[in-house]
Amino acid sequence: MSEYTSVTFDKDLLVQIAGGDETAFSILFKQVVPSLQPAVFKIVQSEEGMQEVIQEAFIRVWLHRDQLPELEKPLHWLFRVTANESYTWLRKQAIRRKHTDGYAQQLPDDGLLAVAPEILSLKETSKLVHQAVEQLPPQRKLIYQMSRNEGLKPAEIAEKLNLSPSYVRNTLVVALQSIREYLEAAGKVLPLMLWLLKK
Question: Regarding the domain delimited by 118-197, which CATH topology (the fold level of the hierarchy) does it fall under?
Answer without folding.
Answer: Arc Repressor Mutant, subunit A (1.10.10)
